Amino acid sequence: MRRTLLALIVTALTAFTWLGWATPTWAAIPEDVDLLRDTNDCPVCILTEADLSGLVLDGSNLKVATLTRANLAGTSLKKANLMLAYLDEANLTGADLSGSQMNGAQMPQAILRGANLSNAEMTQVNLLDADLSEANLEGAVMLSVKLGTANLKGANLKGANLRGVNRSMALFCNTVMPDGAIENRDCD
Length: 188
Known about the structure:
With 188 residues, the protein is mostly loops. The chain has a single domain, classed as Pectate Lyase C-like (3 Solenoid), CATH 2.160.20. It has helices at 2-18, 30-39; strands spanning 175-176, 182-183. Strands 1-2 form a two-stranded antiparallel ribbon. Strand 1 and strand 2 (182-183) form a beta hairpin. It is elongated and about 45 Å long. The termini are far apart. The mean pLDDT is 91.
């Protein structure tokens, strides 16, 4: 019953967030942190500000989970399900998200410095003002992603699908573009 009610609440918040009406701000539920560590299966969990750094969470189910300001630095999330997850201001420095499903995730101001996002599914992800410097996005599907002033300096976008992505304000310096060309428009 608790999970069903929580799922309904999070689904409503997802709709409200896309409309700009709400952002989840509650703290991590200790039982949810334990559940994730023990089973790798924690959909609709509340993991706000949780320290999950350095864990191996490959193949984990974090669909619609709230990981706002969570520390996931160096965490392995290969082939994880992060669809519709909230990762606002999360620290994913050096995390391995290769092959992950992240469609619809909210990741504004997330720190993905040096993260491996190769072959990730990232359709309609909100990456407004995120730090993707030195990130590997090779082969990622990034249809209709919101970048804003995201930092893509030193990132590898070779073979990435960026259809429908407005890149006009994003920062590029020594950035490998989808066609393999190097973009240096924002080098100091």
